[in-house]
Structure formats: structure tokens, C-alpha cells
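Dear colleagues,

As part of the handover before I leave the project, I'm documenting each prediction I ran so the next person doesn't have to rerun anything. This entry is a single chain, and its sequence is reproduced below.
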Amino acid sequence: MTRIKLREQPLYEFTYTFTVQARDLSSRRHLGADAIVQMLHEAVVNLFQALGLQELDLGDGKTGIITEDTVIDFRREAFLFDTLTIETHVDEVDSSGLRMYHRMIHSDEIAALAESGLVGFDHGRREVVPIPETFNSALLRHWQQLQTAVRS
């Protein structure tokens, strides 16, 4: 059977940690795919918080973001009370959207890789719109802070 095979990115700028809860388990008693999607969403919301933005306001007061697609490449199981770290890399930012690459780590091993496409969205007008420059500026400031921290 042909599988989707996502690749690790060379750098992940954002990190968010979870503990697997009972609600996150599938009927087989391991972390469910639906829970991974929820965890990715929570990691993204926290990424926006770190940038000083919100999912519904990318800094211009009107443009939010919606997910266009998500792919998950499962690598290993995770179970109740396991600690998972989601690392995220933002790339391919252009006028219409961006890609987010996620690596989910458990006990120094990859539990899953995921990739999401996001587009700018005006919730008031209910239409796809360009990503505002305020998002790019916030992302650039974050990258510069990371570079400064690495040099220190």
C-alpha cells in the first residue's frame, strides 16, 4: 500500500507540550487521529499567541486563518499520560496562505509528522483573503528573537 511520507524539517521554531488524557484515546486505547488534529490546532493557537496574534485576527483587525488541509504521518503509538511535544515550523508564506509543518515527539522519538495548509479568511465576509503583512512582520520578529537567543 502506498503511504504518505512526510519529511522532518531542519528547524522547528515553536514548541507546545501536551499530556495525553483519556478523552484523547481511540477505541484501541492509544492516541486517536481526531485527538492529534485537536492537539495540532491547540499548538497553532498557542503559536499565534506567541506571535502576539490570534487565530481570528492576524494583526490587521479583520483577517483570520482557516485550515485548508492537514496530513498526518503516524510513526508510533502514544498512550494515556504520555507527554507529547509538538514542534512547529511555518514556511511557504505567500499572499494566499502558508504551510505549517509539525513534529510530534514522545520519549525522543517521532510519534507523528503532520503538515497543514492554512489560508487567510475574512470571517465577516466569509471569503478567502490574502495573509496580511502584520502576520509576516510578527513571524519575522519571532525569527529574529530566536536568532538573538541562539547567539547569546
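The mean pLDDT is 94. The domain at 14-151 is CATH 3.10.129.10 (Thiol Ester Dehydrase; Chain A).

All the best with the project,
I.
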